[in-house]
Write a structure and sequence with these properties.
Elements lengths: L4 H19 L8 H6 L6 H12 L2 H13 L5 H22 L8 H8 L1 H34 L3 H49 L3 H11 L18 H18 L1 H8 L4 H33 L12 H9 L4 H36 L5 H26 L6 H25 L5 H21 L7 H24 L1
Helix pairs in contact: 1-8, 1-14, 3-8, 3-11, 3-12, 3-14, 4-12, 4-14, 5-10, 5-12, 6-7, 6-16, 7-8, 7-14, 7-15, 7-16, 7-17, 8-12, 8-14, 8-15, 9-12, 10-11, 10-16, 10-18, 11-14, 13-14, 14-15, 16-17, 16-18, 17-18
């Protein structure tokens, strides 16, 4: 059926509207603290929605339904780990972040191990977040190309440019408050899409459950005692717990939002409630994929790849007007994730690197440089997304694999600093390298599922870092 002028009008109205809304926050950016932490005056519920939006990229909305279409609901075990990881962060890491006037996650590392290790951890974040975000930006092109018929490269450029405009001008305040609006749009749009799929399937929900049950699509738990399957309960829950503890607890993308809260208590409230929201949200996206299976009952290869199933359904089967709303909803998730990444990459670049060598730079120049760095990161993400074209199959798993490569090394060093007194700078650096090498080896040269990467990498970094610290302290004696 394709999109009509009404759909294109809705999409255009959303893109223009959200960009103009984000620009409203420019006048509030008087200091670097305002620009990167929104003056630490954001209510917990807005931070909660922003965390959910930052965690929900286009990968989630198009690839999670595709994953359920191909398999079942066992990915939900990973999300249960996401919830568990939030409790660990709330009571183990967050109190340390709120002791002092921290702006980036890696200042905590400097306070414990010194400036060189701060730059090392920040550099690792910049490298891996850029690559992982390049995959997420690429996922945008799948949706826009199907919906608008534009070339994939042009699709990436359109969304990157519009997101850059309000992120560049409004800083973290613009990012968080546009996230609030975007999360409402994409969750509401997904609920609307779900209701319409039920309506389109002959026999409705009852028929869907019959078809899904016969194909074992409603299976959530898999207690198979196998190390080599990615979505057994053991691998998925442990993997999800470590992935979230590392990502939300050590990565500037999420720590920055938590530091923008008015107090430690509000930061904890935002983080824990976001866990409940994420669990419900992922369940919704997975069930959506099961519904699409009941509707089409075709192999995913019919669509080229599983990630194209949901966008194709929206464009070809949804009534005009609704198609526009649903495509706008997917773009909302994409833009919220991209804006978060741009702001986090820029803040870490300026605060963890530039100001180390130029501490006397005045506030006006700091903000100006932050905007320049944001533009440069947007250009790099565009290039990385283009490099992903036709090289990535199921984008959600590839994106999680890339992110997982460095998470274990980062989390191991953070735990070494928080849980031990004997860890020292050289030992922590050696531990971090050990964790990173271990994870790269797992990724490139073994069949170990990605769900184990962070747990194994964390253990390798912590054990190697602690052992090296103890050995070095003895040799000094």
């Amino acid at each position: 059926m394709g999109l009509a002028r009404l759909d294109l009008g809705i999409i255009a109205a959303y893109l223009v509207g959200i960009t103009l809304f984000g620009l409203r926050f420019r006048k509030r950016q008087r200091t670097l603290r305002d620009y990167f932490l929104a003056g630490r005056d954001i209510p917990w519920w807005a931070i909660m929605l922003s965390i959910v939006a930052a965690e929900t990229s286009t990968l989630t909305i198009i690839s999670i339904p595709g994953l359920a279409y191909d398999t079942n609901l066992t990915f939900l075990q990973v999300v249960m780990g996401y919830v568990a990881g939030r409790f660990i962060i709330s009571f183990l890491l967050l109190p340390h972040y709120f002791r002092g006037d921290l702006v980036t996650a890696y200042q905590l590392i400097e306070r414990r191990f010194g400036a060189p290790l701060r730059r090392l951890t920040a550099g690792l974040f910049l490298l891996t977040r850029a690559v992982a975000e390049g995959v997420r930006v690429y996922a945008i092109s799948i949706v826009v190309a199907i919906a608008l018929g534009t070339g994939e490269m042009a699709s990436i450029a359109i969304i990157t440019m519009l997101t850059l405009i309000y992120t560049l001008e409004g800083g973290l305040a613009a990012v968080i408050w546009t996230d609030v609006i975007q999360s409402v749009i994409y969750i509401g749009g997904t609920l609307l899409g779900t209701a319409l799929i039920i309506h389109y399937v002959p026999g409705g929900w009852e028929h869907i459950t019959q078809v899904a049950a016969a194909a074992h699509k409603f299976r959530v738990f898999d207690f198979t005692p196998s190390f080599w399957k990615p979505y057994t309960f053991w691998a998925a829950f442990v993997g999800g717990t470590f992935l979230t503890t590392a990502g939300h607890g050590t990565e500037q993308l999420f720590v920055q939002r938590l530091l923008a809260a008015r107090s430690l208590r509000q930061a904890i409230a935002a983080l824990l409630t976001s866990g409940a929201a994420i669990l419900v949200q992922f369940a919704l996206f997975l069930v959506l994929g099961v519904m699409l299976f009941a509707y089409y009952r075709l192999p995913s290869t019919y669509f080229g790849q599983a990630d194209r199933i949901y966008p194709t359904f929206i464009v070809s089967r949804m009534p005009h007007g609704v198609s526009g709303i649903l495509i706008a909803a997917i773009l909302a998730a994409a833009m919220s994730n991209l804006s978060a990444a741009l702001n986090a990459l820029s803040s870490s670049t300026i605060l963890d690197f530039y100001l180390h060598w130029h501490p006397q730079t005045d506030e006006r120049r700091r903000i100006a440089l932050s905007r320049v760095i944001t533009v440069l990161w947007a250009a790099l993400l565009f290039v990385l997304a283009v490099l992903c074209l036709h090289r990535v199959s199921r984008v959600v798993e590839f994106g999680l694999e890339i992110a997982s490569i460095a998470y274990g090394a980062l989390l191991g060093v953070f735990l070494l600093g928080v849980l031990t007194r004997r860890g020292n700078q050289v030992g922590a650096a050696l531990g971090m390298v050990s964790g990173l090498v271990t994870e790269v080896y797992l990724w490139r040269f073994t069949a170990v599922p990605w769900t184990w990467y962070v747990a194994i990498g964390t253990a390798a970094a912590f054990v190697a870092g602690y052992a090296a610290s103890v050995a070095l302290s003895r040799s000094v004696r």
